[in-house]
Amino acid sequence: MSNQDITIRELMPDDAETMIAYSKRIGGETDNLTFDFNGFPISVEDEKKFLASVHDDPKSIMLSAWRGNELIADASLHSMPRRMSHRAELGISVVKDEWNKGIGGMLLEKLIQFAKDADIEIIELSVRSDNNSAIHLYEKYGFKRIGTYPAFFKIENNYYDFEEMYLDLR
User: Each residue's pLDDT tens digit in the chain (170 positions)?
Assistant: First the structure.
């Protein structure tokens, strides 16, 4: 399948139920996320409110990638408050069947352009230190490693370090 049949659009409150199901799917496919197969413990109504609040924030966005009517990836920029308002936190997830097919890059390009248009100067993220594919993608788009956070995750009795990365758009 080609990436030409992928549609990228902003997630809206009406996508809440789909987004909850998506989070359960991806949470069960990888240990790279902050949640597992249970997804986020959130009601459909609360997810609708969350998506509306992101949509209403001029410096935040949640994008989605769709193959037909299947949600296959999401990506977000969340603005930070007060003296950190020049910064935003980035997150990307892709269903396992679609890994390494360029979808993360498609979403990342759109988020970087959104950040520039919204006068966001610094994009930051945390990525599991052994997630080499994701680290390679971020470095390809200019992100720099600024440190390692030891024992960022604890899954069962195992600890996992994370790389802290940022992209300076100034």
Answer: 567 789 999 999 999 999 999 998 988 888 777 776 777 788 899 999 999 999 999 999 999 999 999 999 999 999 999 999 999 999 999 999 999 999 999 999 999 999 999 999 999 999 999 999 999 999 999 999 999 999 999 999 999 999 999 999 99
Both structure tokens of 23: 């989070």
Tell me, what amino acid is at 166? Y
Beta carbons within 8 Å of 132's beta carbon, 6+ residues apart: none
Stated pTM of the model: 0.91
Q: Which amino acid would we find at residue 143?
A: F
* 142-158: b (≥16 Cβ within 10 Å) or e: ebeeeeeeeebbeeeee
Domain spanning 3-125: which superfamily? Gcn5-related N-acetyltransferase (GNAT) (3.40.630.30)
